[in-house]
Every structure is written in structure tokens, then in C-alpha cells.
Amino acid sequence: MTEGVCPVAYGAASYGSRIAIVSPRGTVTYEELERRVAVAAARLREAGCAEGMRVGLHLPTGEAYIVLLLALLRIRCVACPVSTRLPEQGIAAALDLIACRVLISDDVRLHGCLEGVRILSPEAVVNGEPGAGYSSAGLDFDQPATIISTSGSTGRPKAALHTWGNHYFNALGSNANIPVEPGHRWLLSLPLYHVGGLGIVSRCLLAGATIAIPVRGEAFTQSIASLGITHVSMVTTQLMRLLREGQTDQLTGLSAILLGGSAFSPALLEDAYAMGLPIHTSYGLTEMTSQVTTTPPGADLDALRTSGSCLPYRELRISEDGEILVRGRTRFLGYVEREHLHQPFDAEGWYHTGDLGTLDERGNLVVSGRQDNMFISGGENIQPEEIEWHLGQLTGVEQAVVVPVPDAEFGFRPVAFVRSYNAGEEIDYRAALESVLPRFKVPYAIFPLEDEQAGERMKVDRRALAARAATLTGRA
């Protein structure tokens, strides 16, 4: 597929009756997807959606969501997915940040509470007769396509503007590393308001593969079995739970398991590798339209302990102070703030990620933490990820997060939150850490990490945990 070609029209011409989407509602072929996108594009035009207009999407994951995304791309609008986890006030703030005045949603709570925002019904847009179709005039790689909110794990979320070319080249580079072809089915296990979820859609469309939509609330392994999944994306916590609960029969038949979102537990990698699971460790970020580095198929255990090497259409280097810098065809246009676009790039076009890392002798990236997570305790620099790594080495530890709390004598002290699958077993974490870390890096206190604090998010909210740690230690 080349510039100027709509991916849906290309899919209809190239893959025809092959399945583009499978869901609890049935299957949609590439030809049928083209028809539905054409109808939705026409309806959007009739509703006044014009080129360059920002249109919000607040919907549960499903066929309609995918159709609307592709229809907005076809008529050159900018699709702005909004998290369904946000309360009404949060939705209003997210739309105001990007000056979005049109929202497609079936949430009746939003009617009347979003001032100045026109709400369209998704059913009214996606339903129609074939004669109402709208043909694409072609797409340009540099046309603005989406605005995606960053995770906001270290502060206020930002709105990242991506082009169609960003999504295209991200998918192309990923597919060159993890093969995807007609007949393959990639589980849409990540939300479409996350860049990782959009990546699944793009990779499948470019390869003629199938986007598989699971039943809401269905167990991960059940979806893999019922939908005939070959490829999955998941965070390390999800994989650890599946291994811990012995639910691995369905995983062994997969072609690829793409891991992302957080640091990789050494014990988890060793267990997965010993089972022969087709895992790929990776490093990515919203600003690069998801994956930047990924390990290849069949990577050995040493490689899997890294985040892999740079994929095609991306560039990566480490600055003198150890920061990871990135650029390339997948780099976003900048951050949107109402009508303004802030482009946080240096003179050579590098985006400074704020992540710290090194390259090993094979060119694989080893991520060591974030610059803005580091704090000073008694004059000593503390990188929380180092302590978290050592906690992750201890038997039974599923996840660990270390945050600073104010201290009158030392400035800050580390406090850890730990989630363990040996809940009934008492483990002296501090004593175990004292054998491998200097005392100033041993957490002052350790508390349980509850599911509602971490959940299935791609990144833990460190600010919220730091506030909780201050309260629990009486230092708020």
C-alpha cells in the first residue's frame, strides 16, 4: 500500500472476502468493512464533519468504534478517542483541552452536561444503505489523523497529535518484526483510546489479518480459545497472573505475545521462556505511536531481559546523560493545547523521552527508569526502578512500585507498595533488600499494592501512590 490509498479500500481490493473483524456479533469481511466505512463517512459528512475537524469518540470497544475511526480518517477529520474511564467532568476537560466540539457517544449521561459540544449517536452514523457511500479521495501520510491522550503517570495528561503516516509506518515496522498475515487474529485487548489499541487495528489492516474483539468481561484465555487468536498484546501483570493461575494452555499455541507497559519481572521472563511462550519484550510510547524497540521471534533469554532493538522507520540514541532520544517516521507532530501545537523536539528533531537507558553490546535497549522518578534522600540519588527491580527478584512478588515521601531529616525517603501472590505468607522485604542494597535505598515502609491502585493500566499512577504513602506514614 502506498501514500494516497485508503487502508480500507486497499483491504477490500486485496483481501475481499477475508475476515477483517471478528466479534461476539459475528464476522465482517474486508469488503463489508469498506461498505460500512463508506456509509459512515457519508453520514459524518451529512452531519457537518469537515476536513481537519476534531471529532471525539467515547464508546465501548466494538465494530462501530473501528468503523467510525476509519470513516473519520477517510474524510480527513481528526479522530479523538476519549477514555471511557473518565467521569463527566474529566470528559469535558479532555475535550476542552483539544478544542473538540463534536463527540460521538451513546452515553446518555453526557447529554446536557458538555457545554458547547454537539453529541452524535453512533447508531445514526454507522447505519445506512450502500447507496449512501462516500468514496475516499485518498490519504496523505502527513495528514493529521488522531489525538491520543498520554498516560499522565507523571503529571497532567497531554494530547498527542499523530498523522496517518505515523500509524502506517509504526504498523509497517512492527509487521516486519512480528509477522502478521491473512488468517492471523490479533486480540483487541487494549482500549482504542490507547495508542497500543490503535496499533493493533493498523497492523491488522495493513496485513489483511483479523481484528478480534473479545466479549466484555470474558477471561483472557477464554477469548483466545473462542476467537481463535494467534497474536496478543498484554502488560506484564496480565501475563504473570496467567502463569500464576496455571492458565497457560491457550498461550502455548499463540504465534506472538507482545509485552509492554512496564518493567519486566526477571522471574516472569524466565518462567515464560522455560515454557516456550512466544514472548516479545518491547519499549514504546504514545509520542512514537507505540512500539520503538521490540525483540524478534525466537529471542534468547538474554535478549528478552532487554526491550529489543530499534524497529524500521524509527531512530534511537542515548544522550550523554543517559536519556533515551527518539525520532523517525513514527514520531508524533506535537502536543495539542486547544488551537496551538507545541513541538517538543530539539534542533535535530529528537524527542527527549525522559526515560533513562543504555544499549547493550547487541544494540538492544535496556531501560533503567525515568528522570522525573528520581529523588534525593540524604544527598543520595535514588532511582525507584532499581529498588523495584530488586523487589521483583523476591519469591512471590508480582508487582512493586516505589515512591518518595517527605522527610524532615533526609528530604525524602522511599516507600514501597508490593503486590504478592503469596498473600498469606509473611515476607520481610526490608531484610531481604538490606542484603543487596545500601540502607538509604531500603524502603522506609512497605504497604500492599491493591488491585484498584494498579488494575490493568498500562502505567501505575505514581502521584496517587505517593499521596497515599504520605497519608499512611503520617507525612501528608
Report helical residue fraction.
25-40%
Number of helices: 15
- State the secondary-structure class: alpha/beta
Mean pLDDT: 90
Radius of gyration: 23 Å
CATH topology of the domain at 204-371: Rossmann fold
Distance between the termini: 56 Å
**Looking at the structure, what is the overall shape?**
globular
| Secondary structure tally: strands | 27
CATH class of the domain at 204-371 equals: Alpha Beta
- Strands side by side in the biggest sheet: 2-1-10-9
| Annotated CATH architecture of the domain at 204-371 | 3-Layer(aba) Sandwich
Chart the SSEs and their pairings.
Blueprint (H helix, E strand, L loop, with lengths): L6 H9 L3 E5 L2 E4 H17 L7 E5 L4 H12 L3 E4 L6 H10 L4 E4 L12 E3 L1 H5 L17 E6 L9 E5 H14 L7 E3 L7 H13 L2 E3 L7 H8 L3 E5 H9 L11 E5 L5 H9 L4 E2 L1 E4 L4 E5 L6 H4 L4 E2 L3 E5 L4 E6 L5 E4 L2 E3 L8 E9 L5 E6 L4 E3 L2 E3 L1 H9 L4 E11 L3 E10 L8 H6 L10 E4 L2 H4 L7 H11 L4
Parallel strand pairs: 1-10, 3-4, 3-5, 5-6, 9-10, 11-12, 12-13, 26-27
Antiparallel strand pairs: 1-2, 7-8, 8-19, 14-15, 15-16, 17-18, 18-21, 19-20, 21-22, 23-24, 25-26
Helix pairs in contact: 1-2, 2-3, 6-7
Please tell me about this protein's structure:
Helices cover 29% and strands 27% of the residues. It is of the alpha/beta class. Among the domains are: 204-371, Rossmann fold (3-Layer(aba) Sandwich); 374-472, GMP Synthetase, Chain A, domain 3 (2-Layer Sandwich), CATH 3.30.300. The strands form 8 sheets. It has a 4-stranded mixed β-sheet with strand order 2-1-10-9. Strands 4-3-5-6 form a 4-stranded parallel β-sheet. Helix 1 packs antiparallel against helix 2, helix 2 crosses helix 3 (63-74) and helix 6 (164-177) packs across helix 7 (195-207). The mean pLDDT is 90.
